[in-house]
Structures are given as structure tokens and as C-alpha cells.
From TrEMBL:
Residues 33-141 form the Creatinase N-terminal domain. It comes from Halorussus aquaticus. Pfam families: Creatinase_N (PF01321), Peptidase_M24 (PF00557). InterPro entries: Creatin/AminoP/Spt16_N, Creatinase/aminopeptidase-like, Creatinase_N, Pept_M24, Peptidase_M24B. SUPFAM superfamilies: Creatinase/aminopeptidase, Creatinase/prolidase N-terminal domain. Residues 192-405 form the Peptidase M24 domain. This is M24 family metallopeptidase. The lineage of its organism: Archaea, Methanobacteriati, Methanobacteriota, Stenosarchaea group, Halobacteria.
Length: 424
């Protein structure tokens, strides 16, 4: 199919809101996301859904869920499109003032997570779940959906039993399917958020080229990169810089206090860098001084593997067909790892969906896709990543893409043809 070519002036613009051109339309994004979830909920025969997982809550409400202590914020979406949101005292009071598109915000009883766990009391944990269930059932009755099936996106057995005791037909499986289906294909504004986060990552890569040199520690270089990301408005909730022998196999601690030396390969994985909640996954490899011929050859092979996969991705293709572009047993270095099957090689060569979470639909991987294929759809967004070892070090490379009708659009734009050389 080839690659999608953007039109003139199509793509990332400024990071701020302005009145003189159309940029990301957040009002439209909130509306379209909620409509997608609502349409699929109705198709599934659910009268309401209780959303506890942060990405699902954000998808439906637009609220900036940045992590919490568990079920201290949750949202009920009804079949008529009504939204009831429960949150902590400070958050709820701020949301009432700042979020006029939500008109029913209440205080939460945290039935799951850190609060009940920290109580140290089984009776306290039971009371909190009872209280959470009571609050939700009361709201269901107010909005006339108490007799209809309710989806829920967590499978906590004790919480489910609380709803069942109150006569609620609670359905966790259907809710998971609804939200997975709603979120797997992105709207135009969601895609622009991902394009924007790729641009912010590239600013972080630039900072690495300016600071990675002999005598700097990995942690110092990573600190400079994250400072740049925060300056531009990114939410940094993951990622790392690693160097030299830590690049293959990838060090378990990721960024360490290792001192960078001449001749080192350095790679950065900007994963879980967020813009408006949308997450990146974006690798690039750097060399402190000229890379060796073996390292250049390894990088060329990793890049070619990556683009072999990209050229297979199109609407209607299936993940079992696409995963054949990833390396075979030899390319996976399975003998070195002592691995016999592809499922043992998690994270080395695969493609995974991107959105409000780091891993969304689809997953393209030799460890699963041959026996469990799914079909690729236009509008899916994903990160595709490959790696290779060379001279006791390793190279990694990754692209962020969106599936278009005539091939993938590559959202990432940092040069990919060869290892980025850092002079010192």
C-alpha cells in the first residue's frame, strides 16, 4: 500500500488554543468519544456503564485522570447519555467549577485501591464497597436505569457481589468489549493529540543530542530530556535513556547512574509521554562518536524489519499476516536468550496500539497473532518497534503510525535512516 502523505499544512500546529486557525477541537473530541462509547453501549444492550479505569473515565468525561488511589473516582454513563461522576473532595469541587459539560459531580466513596487497603480493617473495606455500591445504585434509580444491565470495567469479585446483592444485573465482560471497541479507532482530534506528542518527544531527542557526552550519567541526560518535555506541556509518566552495555539486553532498571563513554550507543524510549492523556511510544538510537560498521549493519537490519512490518499494515489486513514481517527465531536472538517459543520474547519485536493507554488494540506479535488474529481497521493508531544487538551493545527503533485507507501515516519524524551520531 505504501505510506500516507499529508497534505500541505496538515499536521501538528501550535500547542496552544488560538482563534485564528483550527487546531485540536477538544470540545468535539469529548463529544465524539462519548458518542462512540454510548453507541456501542446501546448496541451491547446495556442500560449503563460504571467506569473505574482512568483511561475509560477520561474517554467519556474528558477529565484529566492522572492516576489516583484506586476507585476514588468513577463515572456512570447511562443509555440516555447522562453522566454522573464521583471523585475526591478537592477534585470534585474543582470539576464543578471548571467542567461545565458535566452537571452531576458527586463525592466518591473509594471502594477499591489504596484507601480500603490502607485501612487495615476488613470491616472498613467491606463498608467502603457497600457505600460505593449504594451511591451508584441510587444514581441509577434517579436516572431510571436501575432495572437495566450495567456494564462495569473492573472484575473485582467482591465489588461485583455488592451490586448483585442490590439486584443489579452487572456485566463486566460486555463493558470491557464496549470500551475496547469504542477506543480502538481514533477520531481526527485524537490522532492530532498523538501527532503532537510525537513532536514533543522529538524535542526530547534533540535535548539528548545536546547533552549526551562522555562524563554525563544516563540519569542526567534523561533529566534534561524530561525537563524539555515538561517545558512543552507533556506529562512524563514513563520512558528512559540507557547506554553502552545497558542497551542489550535492555537493563532491568532502565535509566541508571552509568557514566556515558566514547563509543557508546545510547537509546531513548519515550513511552508514556502524554499530551492531553494520549501516550507515546517512540524509540531512537544515538551513538557517542561514529558507530562501528557492525552497529550500522545491525541498525539497518532493525530499520528494514520495522519498515517491512509497516508496509504490511493496511485496513483489512490481519495481524497474523502482518507479524510475519517481524524477525524469525534467529533475528529474535532466541538461542542467546535460551527461549524456545516466541511468546517468551515479550516487548522485543511487536506493534501495539496507542491512545489513552500505552497498550491498546491492536497487538501485532509473533507470540500471539498467528493463532489469535484480528483485523486492522482504518483509524487505528500504534507503535511498531524492533531491535538488534551488535558489538555487545544494541540498537532499537520505533515509529508511531496511524492506519489510513491508502497505507500508514507515520506520525514520528525524527530521522530514521541511520543512527544519530553525537559528536563530542
Amino acid at each position: 500500500m505504501g505510506f500516507y502523505q499529508r497534505d500541505f499544512m496538515e499536521g501538528t500546529r501550535g500547542t496552544m488554543g488560538v482563534d485564528w486557525e483550527e487546531r485540536i477541537d477538544f470540545q468535539r473530541m469529548r463529544r465524539e468519544r462519548k458518542e462512540r462509547a454510548l453507541e456501542r453501549m446501546r448496541e451491547a444492550g446495556l442500560g449503563s456503564m460504571l467506569l473505574v479505569n482512568d483511561p475509560n473515565v477520561r474517554y467519556v468525561t474528558g477529565l484529566a485522570m492522572t492516576g489516583g488511589s484506586g476507585a476514588d473516582h468513577y463515572t456512570l454513563l447511562t443509555e440516555d447519555g447522562d453522566v454522573v461522576h464521583w471523585d475526591t473532595a478537592d477534585h470534585a469541587s474543582n470539576q464543578r467549577f471548571n467542567c461545565p459539560w458535566l452537571d452531576d459531580i458527586r463525592y466518591a466513596a473509594p471502594g477499591l485501591g489504596n484507601v480500603p487497603r490502607a485501612s487495615g480493617s476488613s470491616s472498613a473495606r467491606d463498608w467502603l464497597k457497600d457505600k460505593m455500591a449504594d451511591l451508584v445504585v441510587e444514581a441509577m434509580a434517579e436516572y431510571g436505569v436501575e432495572k437495566e444491565p450495567m456494564g462495569i470495567d473492573v472484575g473485582n469479585r467482591s465489588l461485583l457481589s455488592k451490586f448483585e446483592e442490590r439486584g443489579v444485573d452487572v456485566r463486566p465482560g460486555e463493558c470491557a468489549d464496549v470500551m475496547e471497541d469504542a477506543r480502538k479507532v481514533k477520531t481526527r482530534d485524537e490522532i492530532e493529540c498523538l501527532r503532537m506528542v510525537a513532536a514533543l518527544c522529538e524535542a526530547g531527542f534533540q535535548r539528548i543530542t545536546e547533552t549526551a557526552k562522555p562524563g554525563m550519567r544516563e540519569s542526567e541526560v534523561w533529566g534534561e530530556a524530561t525537563k524539555e518535555l515538561w517545558r512543552l506541556g507533556a506529562m512524563v509518566q514513563g520512558g528512559y535513556v540507557t547506554s553502552g552495555p545497558n542497551t542489550w539486553p535492555k537493563h532491568q532498571a532502565n535509566t541508571t547512574d552509568r557514566v556515558i563513554r566514547p563509543g557508546d550507543l545510547v537509546y531513548a524510549d519515550f513511552y508514556n509521554i502524554g499530551f492531553m492523556g494520549y501516550r507515546s511510544c517512540y524509540y531512537r538510537t544515538f551513538s557517542v562518536g561514529e558507530p562501528t560498521q557492525a552497529q550500522q549493519d545491525a541498525y539497518e537490519k532493525a530499520r528494514d524489519d520495522l519498515y517491512d512490518v509497516l508496509e504490511r499494515i493496511e485496513p483489512g489486513a490481519t495481524t497474523d499476516e502482518i507479524c510475519e514481517g517481524f524477525p524469525d527465531e534467529a533475528g529474535e536472538q532466541m538461542d542467546w536468550y535460551g527461549a524456545d517459543e516466541f511468546w517468551e520474547m515479550t516487548t522485543n519485536h511487536w506493534a501495539h496500539g496507542l491512545g489513552l493507554q500505552l497498550y491498546e488494540v491492536p497487538l501485532i506479535w509473533r507470540g500471539l497473532s498467528p493463532d489469535h488474529p484480528i483485523e486492522i481497521e482504518e483509524g487505528m493508531t500504534m507503535a511498531v518497534e524492533t531491535m538488534r544487538p551488535a558489538d555487545r551493545q544494541g540498537v532499537r527503533v520505533e515509529e508511531m503510525v496511524v492506519v489510513r485507507e491508502n497505507g500508514v501515516e507515520i506520525l514520528s519524524q525524527w530521522p530514521v535512516e541511520e543512527i544519530t551520531t553525537i559528536e563530542h
